[in-house]
Amino acid sequence: MSAIQVSKLHTFVGHKDSIYTIEPMEKQSVFYSGAGDGMVVKWDFKEPDKGQLVAKMPNSVYALRSIPDRNQLVIGHNFQGIHLIDLSKNEESGSLALNSTAIFDIKHTTDKLLVGTGSGLVYIIDLDELRLLKVLEHSSKSARTISINQERSEFAVGYSDHNIRVYDLNDNRLKYELSGHTNSVFSVAYHPQTPLLISAGRDAHIRVWKPGKGYAVHQSIPAHMYAINHIEFSPNGHHFVTCSMDKSIKVWDAQEFKLLKVIDKSRHAGHGTSVNKLYWSPYNQQLVSCSDDRTISVWDLKF
Description:
The chain is mainly β. The radius of gyration is 18 Å and the shape is globular. The protein has one helix at 265-268; strands at 5-12, 19-24, 30-35, 39-44, 47-56, 61-67, 72-77, 81-86, 91-96, 103-108, 112-117, 121-126, 131-137, 143-149, 154-159, 164-168, 174-178, 185-190, 197-201, 205-210, 216-222, 228-233, 239-244, 249-253, 259-263, 275-280, 287-291, 296-302. Helix content is 1%, strand content 57%. Strand 4 (39-44) and strand 5 form a beta hairpin. The strands form 7 sheets. The protein has a 4-stranded antiparallel beta sheet with strand order 1-28-27-26, with no helix packed on it. It has a 4-stranded antiparallel beta sheet with strand order 2-3-4-5, with no helix packed on it. The protein has a 4-stranded antiparallel beta sheet with strand order 6-7-8-9, with no helix packed on it.
């Protein structure tokens, strides 16, 4: 185990229910959180004790997506669809009703939104007109996670039917179907430095896929005791972190896929319940985590 020094810098409180997602605003010191209480809150690393309410939804918020070029925040409002917030005015600028299921992930390109839902449908939406372009119907189980690879013009979607499906980013056709996980896939992430796709989920394993070889399995790693909720790479791409229902955060070498550090409650005053989402910020290289314990923690990692 590596001699990484870990210290907790801040704890953000204010949500009244489990916090499911955190979303950065790129090139800024701020990020947003969404929770089971329906609140979307803006936080600033520079003022950790001052959360600002951005929106209050009637239902849980599992997914957020910031669009810095447009100064917009997209809120996945469970059972209602998506809402666009104009951050310059802090008011809603548009909405689009989808099906009456949970929204688990939202990603975007220059002009499109990709939305994964609890019905297994993936919606492709025109961002300028907020108009539905295409619905991908390849599973009846939840589409839980999306990752985009601009270089390959592909995007990967992890589903609760245990599979990952890879689509063409231009015409949305299904290109590959990846089998290997033995339960729901909760997180997929393209490696920022090497041609690899990393996935994880309820089976508590990390799987590494090689896109250049038809997405052949490169490695399978038993990584946590319980379900892995999220994978997040460091700003320089040298490391990645995973978080889990086992209440821990684990730090990994992104080249050799070796475990370097475990961050938990007993050793580092970590979260007391499931850790749901991570954000590794370029702002002072700080790591942010959110949990079912209704708190957000900010960590300093020294390698």
